[in-house]
Amino acid sequence: MELAAEELTGAINRLRRAQGQIAGIIRMIEEGRDCEDVVTQLAAASKALDRAGFAIIATGLQQCLADGDTADGDQQQVRTRLEKLFLSLA
Fold this sequence. Notes:
Blueprint: H1 9-30, H2 35-66, H3 72-89
Helix pairs in contact: 1-2, 2-3
């Protein structure tokens, strides 16, 4: 299953936001900032990554549902792959 970048604009934006947050976290650590502030930012970056992952999976599900003419064996394979993707974010 291949995903088009234009269908994932929201996920891409979340990933860019997380990228900026991670850069900020690195600076915070290098500057010796308070542990609580660093952990708060780590949690925010982690949540942004999780939400991006779920958005990508949701787009994949949408495509799978749209491609309803898939053979039964292929549907089971897609289901197994999507299940593994969900579990990887759990």
